[in-house]
From TrEMBL:
GO terms for cellular component: cytoplasm. Signal peptide: none annotated. One of its GO terms (molecular function) is protein serine/threonine kinase activity. This is Uncharacterized protein. InterPro entries: Thr-specific_kinase-like (IPR052969), vWFA_dom_sf (IPR036465). SUPFAM superfamilies: vWA-like (SSF53300). Gene3D superfamilies: von Willebrand factor, type A domain. It comes from the Eukaryota.
Length: 127
């Protein structure tokens, strides 16, 4: 996993909101092994359509997908969603991401508390 993350190149889209639905949909459509499946979403902005101020796509993701439905599909496929929020920039949207994580059978964790993420995942898997 570390090797794959090191290959990632961060890029900006020019607006505040992010293509969260596209990321979740891409995760849903990965070729997962028949094992425990965990998605860790790291966010520092709201998804498109949640806050129209400065959003190039104020009506939501141009893909037309509903983020809640995508997360529910992930849960149906037994993909657990953990969201790591970069606060304070995401603090206004914490409730939104907490609910997405809850629907995804996971949890929302602040980046400042990310050191507990691995332990939370292990604990949740054992319960």
């Amino acid at each position: 996993m570390s090797r794959r993350l090191a290959e990632c190149i961060p890029q900006g889209g020019g607006d505040g909101p992010e293509a969260v639905v596209d990321a979740l949909h891409a995760a849903l459509n990965l070729s997962w092994r028949d094992a425990t499946k965990i998605c860790v979403l790291i966010v520092d902005a709201p998804p498109h359509g949640l806050d129209p101020n400065g959003d190039a796509f104020p009506n939501g993701c141009p893909c037309g997908r509903d983020p809640v439905r995508v997360v529910e599909e992930m849960a149906e496929e037994r993909i657990i969603l953990y969201t790591v929020g970069v606060e304070p920039s995401i603090a206004l949207y914490r409730g939104y991401y907490q609910e997405l994580s809850r629907r995804g059978r996971g949890e929302y964790i602040r980046l400042a508390d990310a050191n507990v993420l691995a332990q939370k995942i292990i604990t949740d898997l054992r319960s």
